Amino acid sequence: MQQALNKPLAGIRVLDLSRILAGPMTGQWLADLGADVIKVERPGKGDESRTYGPPFLRDRDGKPTDTAAFYLACNRGKRSMTIDLGSAEGQDIVRGLAAQSDVLIENFRAGTLARYGLGHEQLRALNPRLVYCSITGFGQDGPYARRPGYDGIFQALGGLMATSGHPEEPMKVGMSIVDVITSLYAVMAIQAALRQRDQATGLGQHVDMALLDCTVATLSHYAMSYLTTGEAPLRRGNGGYGGVPSQAFRCKDRSIFLVAANNAQFGRLCEAIGLPQLPGDPRFDSTSRRIANRAVLVDLLAATLAQMESTDVLARLELADVPASPVNELPEVFADPQVRHRGMLQQVDHPLGGSMYLVANPLRMSCSAVGASRPPPLVGEHTREILKELAGMDDVHIDALMAQGVV
């Protein structure tokens, strides 16, 4: 109990009507910070991301369940209840829950929930303090507002693919990075809205998050390079855009990534790998000259590194205080001693799978506990509990609603 009291968002209730990834991950971050997050799902089916497999969670006997790993990635710490949003009774239940909540998260297409009487203005009339967060592909307004979209669409449309890949071929980030980034922006906005409500206005507000907006904002210094010069930065595969070298190199046995961002690091790099003459070469004796002569320098470094074992190179560069790393596959990531030391694997007990690992929340705060001990919930696992606690219903009433398919 003491740990729960130390969590920054203890006492905040979140009604999470979202599904798939960006919305549920927003709710998960808030749960990690101590909010009571109630996940609302469809009766009998749940969040469609539960079926986004294989792979699926295996039970204690090693048999596959119907719970996808995808779902497990973004729903820890929540309570799940099922409600048919298309029914009048279900809509009444949501309104009752919203009236007692601090935050509502939804990622339906713009205008969908308003048709159910669950839009921002409708729920604001019931609870003026509610922070209502809508997460959509294109936002609540504009020429694309009603369009569907998924992560890859926004990587392509928003310019993220233009920054990745090789000169002749743009390439998307492998994972659904736009959804993850949007969830982080959404949590920032929700917490800001809660603070403004509690410290200034006493009122909630509508937070309008668009995956396209978040993609464009994430372009950061790439965008500024274009806006400053009118020229789009070139794609360089596994090479960085700034100082040289900053990229992956292939050693005899595997690839490594190294960065020498200034003259001092470049000098130590060259000394460590047996090329002490390069820092004095007029083509490479400053950051700007190394950038101008990138191709020549990279070829020289690549030829030398290709003859060396990665462990030897990495040991030399560590002694020389030059940033470098192996290019790890996922098994190596989660076996890494620093990752283990920082507690980036969290163990929970799942009702079907038993003891299992999740990726932990990376926040570390000196006076606040962060992280959820509750595993991702089963479909409707807490429906009865929540209806008794927040709607004041008894078992007879709840049984009747279940028989009708309302919950």
UniProtKB/TrEMBL annotation:
Record has Transferase as a keyword: yes
Any Pfam family the entry gives: CoA_transf_3
Top-rank taxon: Bacteria
TM regions (residue ranges): none
GO molecular function, one term: CoA-transferase activity
Record key words, sorted: Transferase
PANTHER family associated with the record: SUCCINATE--HYDROXYMETHYLGLUTARATE COA-TRANSFERASE (PTHR48207)
Name of the protein this chain belongs to: CoA-transferase
Organism: Pseudacidovorax intermedius
Lineage: Bacteria, Pseudomonadati, Pseudomonadota, Betaproteobacteria, Burkholderiales
